[in-house]
Every structure is written in C-alpha cells, then in structure tokens.
Amino acid sequence: MRELIKKLTEISSPSGNEDDIRNFIKKEIKNYCDSIETDVMGNLIARINGKKGGKTILFDAHMDEIGVMVNHIDENGFLRFTAIGGFFPFHALVHRIRFQNGVIGVIGEEKRDSSAKVSPLDKLYIDIGAKSKKEAEKMIEVGDMGTYAAETIVTDNRIIAKSLDDRIGCYIMIEAMKKIKKPKNTIYFVFASQEEVGVRGARPAAYRISPDCAIALDVTGTGDTPESAKMEVKLDGGAAIKVKDSGMLTNRKVREKLIDVAKKHKIKYQLEILEHGTTDAFGIQITAGGVPTGAISIPSRYIHSPSEMVSVSDVKACTDLVVAFANDYDA
Amino acid sequence: MNIEKFSNAMGVSGDEWEIRRLLTEEAEKYADSVEIDAMGNIIALKRGTGGKKKLMAVAHMDEVGFLVTGIDESGFLKLGRVGGIDPRVCVDKRVIVGRDKIPGVIMVKPIHLTSRDERGKPVPFSSLLVDIGTEKKEETAKYVKLGDPVAFDTKFEKLSNSMIKGKAFDDRLGCVAIIELLKKRYKHDFYAVFTVQEEVGLRGASVIGERIKADYAIILEGTGAQDFPNKKDINKSPKIGAGPCVTIKDGRSFASKELLKLTVKVAEENKIPFQFKKPGVGGTDAGVLQISGTGIKTIVYATPARYIHSPVSISSVNDLKNKINLTDLVLKSL
Amino acid sequence: MDIVEVLKTLSSSYGLTSFEDDVIKKAEELISPYADGINRDKAGNLTAFKKGIEGKNKVLIATHIDEIGLIVSGIEKNGLLRFSTVGGIDLRILPGMEVMVLGKENIPGVIGSIPPHFQSEDDRGKPYGREDLYIDTGLDYTKLKKSVEIGTPVAYRSRFTELKNKKFASKSLDNRASCAAMIYAMYELTKLKHKWDVFGVFTLQEEYTMLGGKTAGFNTDPDLAIVMDATFGLQPGVPKDEGFDIDSVLTIARGPNLHPGATRELMHIAEEEHIKYEIEVTPGMSGTDATGIQISRRGIPTVLISLPIRNMHTSSETININSVINAGKLTARYIASLDENYENRFE
C-alpha cells in the first residue's frame, strides 16, 4: 500500500496535463477490468462488466492536482505564474515546485506591504536558480506547468503528502477494482481529468456513460483541529458519506443506500456537511436528464497544501464501502 | 470585408436582433444551409467535399450593453448592465435605445457643480440616467418599454491603413472572420456558428453541443490587449499588431494539445505572425463547448483589441487578416 | 377548485431542497384529477402530462416545489442541534423562530440564541452568526439520537394565516404559490381546448442547484417553457423599481434568460384577457428555473411569470390569492393560444 500511495502522490500531473498519472494508473489497473479507454477530455475510463439485469454504477475520482502555469519569464530569469485550480497564496510561499520537465523552483514574494498579511498570487514569483532570462528560457517556456514537490510519508495510521486530493480517491478505486470480482452490476471507474479547474472531465464522461447512479470519491475537510470551523467530520471517524457541500446536496436514496450498506457490512462511517468546497459529484448530478449521485469522502486536513493528511483506517473504510456498494446496489 | 456594418449593428446580449439579421443575410450568400435555433444562434453549414469529420468555427454576435430597468418621473431612463461593463466608462456616452434605435445621452452633472469629494469617487452606476429628449414619463413611455436594449452608439472609423476604431470588436471581428471562412469549401463539413449571449455566461454556446457533435472547434474571439506602458516586468501580451492571439489556457478551458501543435506548425510553416495569450485570463465559448456532450477538441484564436467592454475599441486589421488566414489553413490541414 | 385550500395544503407541507418527497406526494394528489398521466423523471421531478388535441408540439410548465430551510450539522451533548443552511437564508430572522425538525418523526423546536446579557457590548451590536445559534427541542441527546442525524432537514414551522383583503401569510409561498397556480392552470385547461401537449412539472432543488429545472428541460425537451416563480412585492425598504404591487399585478420578465418573441406573445395574451401585469427587467440571471431551462438540451424558448410576495424567504411570506388565480389563468390561456402556426421568431 505504501508503495502505491507514494507513487500516486509523487507524480506531478496538474489539471490539463494528466498524461503521467494516467499512464501510471493504466498500468496498475489493466489486469483488474474488462475494458479501458481514454476519452476526448483525457479521462481514463475502466469498466468491469456485470450480469444481465444489473445496474450501471459510475465511481469517479479525479487524477489531476492543483498547480501553477508559467505566464512570463522576466528579464532576470524569474518566473511569473498563474494558478491551476485552487493553488492558494497562503500555502505557497517558499514551497518547492516541480515542473513537468523536472526543473525545480522555489516560490518567493515581492516586498510585502506592511498591512497585507499574505501576498497575493501576482506578487509571487518562482525562482529556478537561473542567472538570466536567456538561461531560464533554456529551462522553461511560457505555458509550462508544475506542481508542489513534497515527499510522501506513510506511517501506521497517517498519510502525509501533496495531492491526496484526489490521488487518495484514485488509490481507493484501484484497490476496489482489485477486490470486485464478477459483480452483478456493471461498474465504471472514471479517473477524471480537470476537476480542479471546474469539474471539466467528469461531465462529458457521465454524459457518455449515463449510469443509474454515480458516486464521487474525493477529500473533505475535518473539524478536529484547534479552533477550527465547526464540522463533525474527523480523522479516524470512518468513511465520510456526503450530505451537502457548497455545490450540491447528495441524492437521498443513494445516500441512504450507502448508509445501509455501511451498517450491514459494519464499515465505520460518518456523515459529512462541507461548507466550502465541492467535487465532481456536483457536475455529474446535473448531466443531461440527471444522475442520482452520492459521494464518499476521505476526511483530510490541510487540503490544497503540500502536506495534506488522511487516516489509513479511513482510507480502508472508504475502500470497503466502495466494494460493498458496488456489489449490493440495486436501485 | 465589411467590418463597419457589423461593428455598428445593435446586438446587446439577449436581443441580438440587428446583428443576427445582417449575419444571416451574409451567411445565406455562401452557406449550403442556414438555421436559427431556439436561443437565436445562427448555424450555417458548408458541406465538405467528402471528408468524414465535423469542423466548427464559432464567434459570438452579442455585445455588452444595457437594458432599460426604469423610467423616472421626468422621463429619464434607468439602466441595468448586461455583461461586464466597468461603470467608469459609462459616463457621458451616446447610446441607442430599442428597435427604433432612439438616440440618447447618458447625463453627467457639470463639473462646476461637483464637490472635490464627489470628484474623488467614480460616478455610481445606479445614478446614471439616459435622456432621449422627452419631458416626462408618459411621453417616454410612448417610445420606450421596460426591458428594451440599450447599446453604445459608436460609429466605426478607419484610423489608418491598418488601425480601426469601433464598438463591439469583441466579437464582431470574429464574426467577420467567420464570414470570410464561409466563402471557402473544405474537405470536411464546416459549421460556421454565430452564438448569442456569450457575454452573459456563454449561454448560446451551451446548447450548440447537443445539436452539432463536432470533432474540432476553433473559437474566434476578441481579447483585451495588454500593451500599455507598465514599469513592472510581467507578461504584457497580447499586443496589437503581433498577430492573432492563441490561447494555451484561459479561465475556462485548456487548448486541445493536438490543435495547439497544429496551429504552431501551420503558423510557422506559412510565416503567419501569432502570439500566445497570457495564460489564465478570461473565458470564451470554448469553456462550454469543450465539455458539452462527450467532449470536443477546442482552441481559441483571438484578435487583440484595446478597451474591450467599453464604448470604443481599437484594433488592427492586419491581426484580423492573419487570424483568418491562420484559421483557414488550420481547417484545411485537419 | 378551492384554490385557498390547494395553496394551504402545498405551503403547509414540508419539502426542503433535496427532501421533497412529502410535498411531492401532496402535489401529486392535487394535480392528478386534471392530468392524463403522472410520472417522476430520472432526476425525480414530478411530471403531470395532459394530452393536446394535435399533440405535435410540447409545452413545459415548470414550478419549483422545494423550499429553503436548515439541515442538522451536529448534535451537542446537551441536546442542542447545530445547523447548516439550505438556500438563501437571512440569519437575522432566525433567533426566536419556531421550526420543525423532520427526523424519523416531526419534532418541534425553537431557534435559540445566547441572551444579550451574556454577550459583550461589541457582540450585542452584531447579528448572530450561524455558529452562535442552536435548535432547541427540549429533548435530550439520547432521545434525539434515535430520530435525528447529520443531514436531517429542519423547516420553518408551518403556520398558514388569512389576513385582510384576500391576502395570506405562510412559509414557502416561494414557490408553493406558483405550484398552486400551475394546478389551477391544469384545471383551467380541462375546460379549454388546447392543441399542444402539456407537461406540468414540479421541479426539485431550485433553491440550491437548479437541478430540477435543468433536468426537466432535458427530459421533456419541449418547444416552449413557461416558468412561474416568486418576485419581490413592494414593501418599505424595497425600491420602487425592484418591487411590485402584490394587490394588483403579476410580472412578466424581459431579459437575456427569456425568449423575446415568446414573451411578446405572452404579454399580448395578458392584454387580451385583461390580466394586469408589469414588466420585470432581469438584465442578469433571472434567479429562477428559467436560467437553467433556457440552455438545457438544444435550447428552449422560455418565458417567466412571477407572483409578487412580501417578506421573501421568511416564514411569513405574504401574497394576494388573486396572483395565484391570475397566474394560472394566464398560463392556461397562453397555452390554449398555441397552435400549429407557432414559429420560433425573435422579431
């Protein structure tokens, strides 16, 4: 487990440039499904065939992560950049960026106004150590993308890494695929592209598949750190079954089925309301004529930072819930 | 290439009546079929000579403007904004109101009667009123109805051999480009689409994907030029005169890698000047077209124009010609 | 048809966004006598179908049936419930409000707040934040846990009151009044001849994601859509050109979300039928299902009729019953005027 999570989280694949993570996942899953394809948007779609009369379920986790895109190389070889997805200035300062071609940079800031607590994005730059514009242009082009560079740590019960949002969702789907054998339902696993820039991959994928129900797997916040905003979800509290987030309310029947399945199989679960933030579920739910959609969330601290943190037991609970739901669901 | 009549035409998002009529007439001269859909989008088809793909070029016909939201006791019109207009560019401008294009003036208090305090703040949009010359509410009501569209009244003008001035270059220049492309015939079926309501949320384009399952879509837009004097060492693209602006990523979409590669290749081989747009900024119809249905490969070529979303824009005809040329060659190579 | 009874039944039922089952059941009972068929589409919207004489074209009537409210976000050890909001709720109306916790049973409660003398001088000058308010049912933790969990909906407690001059105060007149108007329209249509097929849809989840409107448009795929929703009634504090007289008018909307040709036709019918209306200008998004329906599928020509109510999004929304009747009449007469000569025209 440690190895797979390490590999998944250490790959740099920001929204729009998911080739590396897609190729890796493809290799991992090819022996555990009946078909694999990549669609126009770059989604990786795997299918496990079910039996006649079974339902079609879509599980979704997004492969892309937040990052940066270079928009200017200045006269002295420093880079200016724009955010890819929710890349927040208050996490960014002095962290390391790895560009997709391997170049490493450090995020610095202009002189700060005394009144400002955090420099906004347009007052930050990336230092790749170049001595001049000419040297920098040999290393980087405008349009190049990068992500945080951070080492993944896995202990007995904690995983600390960048891009657990949503590589941990991808991990759960990969593990579930290994465990689902000859299901009655047809199961699609969509490793979606471009979630962080507006839920862009999942929508065409759901449109094409038109499932009977869909479950999105993504991270959610927790309310268990000092003086945090009030939220019931906590690390080690089990698989979070989403009720509401800032983009949608989950389908009641799907949510109740998830709860029933969790109770039946004695899988630890908790109920989730997230005040700020949403997932692919929001886009899938309103596709075409509507898809009954729910979400299983992995409780996470420090989301969108280089040090996201989740609980190993929660991850296992989520995996078990995915497998159980895939097998038990019958609308 | 008659930019003048298209730039001058009225077409505030949601009521694109005049520009739609002009574009339909023009498209009917060159297309095999022209349809207008439920939203008012124009879809013109030029059948291919045997190719199996579906190509699409898209430009939006609507412009930012206003709607009449109230008529006060003195007969002056209150306005609501349609699309993103900075209130500071609205003061003391000439406008045209409704289907009869009634001329009006956005009034301003004379400077002599303003206090220093007042002059230190922008004129609040909610205080702006339009005078069409009537004396009271009942008289105005004979000419104007609540909800009537109001557009800037700017007349097109050539400033030099290459520079032009007018309103709505975002995106009437794109519309002009598409008319030029309609004059040709390509290997594959070519859909020339003029969308409505781009400025109020890419709404016209939202319904195109259900009707046309295109393989490739090139969106021809107008984008704000950034070539102003600015001491800071940051990205100042796009520049007027440096050619069509190719988008790698804007606020709503990534360019298809295949189309991006092809664009650069075609431009370099044919020595067509082009520039890359500063990544991250803005949004176009590509944002909704790309994720419609099962997904479409898209790219955006934009003509840089100064002062878009204001009463007057300035742009270069050479950039427009190069954009048309580039699009034509890319469509030929697909 | 006793329209006041219909309005009372609908607005007194509970049906928060995404928890609409109870009110859907009532709506189905109320509309069935006037429909040829009823079903729920893939997204859960309740559709009442009425066959037209020719049946070549389809018209969709859409009224959202969900109401705003609260949702339990936590149960404190002392039995007080914390909550999150569903839809646009002004927190300032909550202190002292009576609510109904819709758990396994309906449990009445009150929204409590810290008494002023326990607050600092500074804090007393500010409205209560969401995290300072609680729902107090008087029950203890153990009892509550049996019936309530995170995600249990909590509604404004229902209280339907008749005021003077045909006016009524209740929760959720936004948008049950329009739902009542749609039922009235279906009833009128049984007395009129209409050529087009009619789909009367109670849409879900308008107050949060507009899910129902978007999917109803897609699933029905009509040639025309008539949306009915609430708009602002004039009251002190509402500017003159943003509110409408609740005693005399309906509104017909003009703006990018609405089809200019169809809207003109609707105004024409209103004038012919002597139904008073005013133009409501919406330069931006309409804030109703019209926004989602217009761009669903291949695009649907949409018109919007609005019923003015005072105190929108509170538990004492106020309406004149004539608005409901007139909206229903106008919708029915408009539909009856549609024939095979209908063209999608913008001029």
UniProtKB/TrEMBL annotation, chain C:
GO biological process: proteolysis
Sequence positions that bind Zn(2+) 2: D174, E207, H313
Residues engaged in binding Zn(2+) 1: H64, D174, D229
InterPro entries named in the record: Peptidase_M42, Peptidase_M42_aminopept, Peptidase_M42_dom2
Keyword Isomerase: no
One GO molecular-function entry: aminopeptidase activity
Keyword Hydrolase: yes
Cofactor field: a divalent metal cation
Keywords: Aminopeptidase, Hydrolase, Metal-binding, Protease
Catalytic residues (UniProt): E206
Cofactor, how bound (note): Binds 2 divalent metal cations per subunit.
PANTHER family hit by this protein: AMINOPEPTIDASE, AMINOPEPTIDASE YPDE-RELATED
Protein family membership: Belongs to the peptidase M42 family.
Protein name: M42 family peptidase
Species this chain originates from: candidate division TA06 bacterium
